[in-house]
Amino acid sequence: MAKINFGGVEEDVVTREEFPLSKAQEVLKDEVVAVLGYGVQGPAQALNMRDNGINVIVGQRENSHSWDKAVKDGWVPGKTLFSLEEAAKRGTVLQFLVSDAGQKMTWPTIKACLKPGDALYFSHGFGIVYADQTGIVAPADVDVIMVAPKGSGTSVRANFLDGSGINSSYAVYQDATGRATERTLALGIAVGSGYLFPTTFQNEVFSDLTGERGVLMGALAGIMEAQYNTLRSHGHSPSEAFNETVEELTQSLIRLVSQNGMDWMYANCSTTAQRGALDWRHEFRKATAPVFEKLYQSVVDGEETRIVIEANSAPDYKAKLNTELSEMRESEMWAAGAVVRSLRPENWGKEDGK
Ligand SMILES: NC(=O)c1ccc[n+]([C@@H]2O[C@H](COP(=O)([O-])OP(=O)(O)OC[C@H]3O[C@@H](n4cnc5c(N)ncnc54)[C@H](O)[C@@H]3O)[C@@H](O)[C@H]2O)c1
Ligand SMILES: CC(C)(O)[C@@H](O)C(=O)O
Ligand SMILES: [Mg+2]
Ligand SMILES: [Mg+2]
């Protein structure tokens, strides 16, 4: 395993050079990989593996939107597309990629399909770490492994198609066969990971739940709304408030951060902006640090997973989520954003920016 120094801390990383696709194909040559669930991660991982020459089948609820999507993607009912239970029976690696709440609901069915020597694969530590809430306790004679892509499934597929990749973390929770690590690494490469970072199920789920509720999604939306509302309350127009909060970030500044780091983005802004931002960043860090601590504790205490299981086990959970997303989309701020996006030269004449 390569040793890489991250800001003074040496960590292990598995690269594609040391674990090339040919090795992954060799490790997986006798496996049937059953991707259970065809929501966001399911399609990305299943299609990438299929394109990488792995023997993949898909399991999904029949008569569902996701089943129809799987058919459109070329999975053939009765040949490579089955009910969850049938796919689980046929697979030797079961990639448990139904939603986290769905994993709790379907676990009794999936558990009954596991054979000695199978691998039970997750893309999140949720089901195993919060077993007291999910009831997911694997039999001792199966491998329990994880590859968790650090990005949306949409990007896992898009990056694979453009020849790049998404970094993933990986972990082995239970090695029943003695092959758990090589299976995990092979699957990690086969699903299109660029680099694989070792972790534990617990560290993955604690950091993942914090990150998405925090800077990646929750804090991002919240802090943007706060700035937009402040500008609007002082008489700035919707377009001015949106441009100064979101559009400039996504079209210019965050791209510079991605290319070369935060100081690089700062260095490419005026010295006026640098002076003020260098000062105000401390104020924002101090104001939000207690919120991040509260969030982390809520993750560790199991409150976040409890809320997810309760809400997303309701029969109409998807409709409820969609209602809240529509409210966000139709708010003045994001309605203004849709218009701002349509004015980008590359979007002239298009119906929407998607
Ligand atoms: N969405 C992502 O990009 C992403 C990224 C990293 C990790 N993950 C993890 O990957 C796993 C899958 O996440 P996802 O976002 O693709 O899931 P999702 O919410 O899109 O759901 C996936 C599928 O689960 C099915 N499903 C839900 N409840 C079910 C039930 N009770 N019975 C049968 N099927 C049911 C749905 O039909 C859907 O096709 C989760 O563990 C998640 O935390 C997701
Ligand atoms: C894509 C994310 C946010 O990284 C993932 O963790 C998820 O739950 O969808
Ligand atoms: Mg997550
Ligand atoms: Mg994540």
Automatic annotation (TrEMBL):
**Amino-acid positions noted as binding Mg(2+) 1 in the UniProt annotation, renumbered to this chain:** 208, 212
Specify the pathway: Amino-acid biosynthesis; L-isoleucine biosynthesis; L-isoleucine from 2-oxobutanoate: step 2/4; Amino-acid biosynthesis; L-valine biosynthesis; L-valine from pyruvate: step 2/4
Q: Where does substrate bind?
A: 270
Positions contributing to Mg(2+) 2 binding: 208, 244, 248
Query: Which InterPro entries does the record associate with it?
Result: 6-PGluconate_DH-like_C_sf (IPR008927), 6PGD_dom2 (IPR013328), KARI (IPR013023), KARI_C (IPR000506), KARI_N (IPR013116), KARI_prok (IPR014359), NAD(P)-bd_dom_sf (IPR036291)
Under SUPFAM superfamilies, the record lists: 6-phosphogluconate dehydrogenase C-terminal domain-like, NAD(P)-binding Rossmann-fold domains
According to the record, the segments passing through the membrane are: none
KARI N-terminal Rossmann domain ranges (all copies)? 9-199
State the family it belongs to. Belongs to the ketol-acid reductoisomerase family.
Listed name of the protein: Ketol-acid reductoisomerase
Please tell me the species this chain comes from.
Pelolinea submarina
